[in-house]
Amino acid sequence: MGITCGIDWTEIHHDIALADEKGRIIGRARIDTRVIGFNELLGLIAENGGTPEDTPIAIETDTNLLVVALADAGFTVYPINPRAVARYRERHGKGRRQIGPRRRRDPGEHPAHRP
């Protein structure tokens, strides 16, 4: 597998990211929702060495014409439920506080009396 494509779908535009086999982003674009945007997407994939046979595409919807057009063009499309993406963002987003391992204290130790 050479590259992978991720599409963040909205009704106004689509945000595209292409990643290489190591997960590095090698291309980004914001495309129109019409045919011109679809052609730009195909061009971006081709410019980065991808083909329909070896470029899997993940998209945050399964109910629009872009999914149908990509499948008809020969791409393997992995539709992702937008609710699943939202829950993932809630669990792993930047706003979530990361809690690291805590040091266990002796029962009589008070934080103010540490050496």
Brief characterization of the structure:
By secondary structure, the protein is an alpha/beta fold. Helices cover 28% and strands 23% of the residues.
How does this structure look, described?
The protein has helices at residues 35-47, 65-72, 82-92, and strands at 4-9, 13-19, 25-32, 57-59, 77-79. It has a single domain, classed as ATPase, nucleotide binding domain (Nucleotidyltransferase, domain 5). The chain has a 5-stranded mixed β-sheet with strand order 3-2-1-4-5, covered by helices on one side. The protein contains 3 helices and 5 strands. With 115 residues, it is an alpha/beta fold. The mean pLDDT is 83. Helices cover 28% and strands 23% of the residues.
Describe the SSE topology.
Layout: E1 4-9, E2 13-19, E3 25-32, H1 35-47, E4 57-59, H2 65-72, E5 77-79, H3 82-92
Parallel strand pairs: 1-4, 4-5
Antiparallel strand pairs: 1-2, 2-3
Mean pLDDT: 83
Work out the strand percent.
Answer: 15-25%
Shape: globular
Into which percent range does the helicity of residues fall? 25-40%
In the CATH scheme, the class would be: Alpha Beta
CATH-defined topology: Nucleotidyltransferase, domain 5
Q: What is the CATH H-level superfamily?
A: ATPase, nucleotide binding domain
User: How many helices in DSSP terms?
Assistant: 3
Structural class: alpha/beta
Q: What is the CA–CA distance across the termini?
A: 56 Å
Order of strands side by side in the largest beta sheet? 3-2-1-4-5
Tell how many strands the DSSP assignment holds.
5
Global Rg: 21 Å
**Low-pLDDT segments:** none
How many domains? The number is 1
The major beta sheet can be summarized as: 5 strands, mixed
For the record, the CATH architecture stands as 2-Layer Sandwich
Instruction: Give, in order, the helices and strands.
Output: EEEHEHEH
